[in-house]
Amino acid sequence: MEKLSVVIIAGNEEKNIRDCLESVKWADEIIVIDSESSDNSRQIAESYTSKIFIKKWEGFVPQRKYSIEKTSYDWVLSIDADERVSDGLKTEIQELLRSNNKLNGYRIPRQNYFLDKVITSCGWYPDYQMRLFNKNFVKLSDRKVHEGFEVDGKTAQLKNHLIHFTHQNITDTIKKINEYSYLQALEKKDGKRVRAINFILNPIAAFLNHFVGRRGFKDGIYGLMVSIIHSMTNLLTYMKTWELQNKSLDKYDEKK
């Protein structure tokens, strides 16, 4: 049976990291990359693993690359502190690691929660993510947000899901909107110039895409809120992109 390294990037995640680590304590190796947490994240992690590395936050891609470099084994499962490995996924991964017919990587369906509800609409499920892979065949995309592992060679999908508590309260949701919209603006700033019409039409289109096109209405008020969140993120992305395009970057101080 192949040995498995689990890698987790975390920063001030004391509310989440214990449950995350508890769900992967069966792995052969657990590596936590801590981005200088000021809460008890590190102390909690120490009760599960001695392989905790402190690295100043430089973005998702540098943190994930660093985590892979610290692994001892070829097979890696990458998760975030607000994610949990379900019992079914644990069993499926263990069976796979015992198999002689492994591919180079596996996309895992993600079950996303908004507040206390699983969201099955809005394009939030199955939300396949490349998270289990042989590190000898993987590289990371250079996107600043929603970065992904890219695997060279054959891949497949697993059946059991990763549980993702992505938005646990509205305050955290607003923080994420602010952070992600800024990162998306950095990606867009050198592209097409933003016009005033983008502030109107694009957020409306984003809302309709998620609430109607991706059937957000099926999840009731939760689907409505998720669709509004996508619209808000879209609006702030275009506003911040406009600001970056019309101001010197060294004068742009994003408060996150």
By DSSP (H or I, 4+ residues per run), the number of helices equals 7
Kindly estimate the percentage of residues that lie in beta strands according to DSSP.
Answer: 15-25%
Query: What is the β-strand count?
Result: 13
Q: How far is it from the N-terminal to the C-terminal residue, by CA?
A: 44 Å
Structural description of this entry:
This protein folds into two domains: 4-166, Spore Coat Polysaccharide Biosynthesis Protein SpsA, Chain A; 169-251, no CATH class. The protein has helices spanning 17-22, 41-46, 60-69, 87-98, 170-188, 196-213, 220-246, and strands at residues 4-10, 29-34, 52-54, 75-80, 83-85, 105-108, 110-114, 117-118, 129-134, 138-140, 149-151, 155-157, 162-167. With 256 residues, it is of the alpha/beta class. Helix content is 38%, strand content 22%. Helix 1 links the parallel strand 1 and strand 2 (29-34). Helix 5 (170-188) packs parallel to helix 7 (220-246) and helix 6 (196-213) runs antiparallel to helix 7 (220-246).
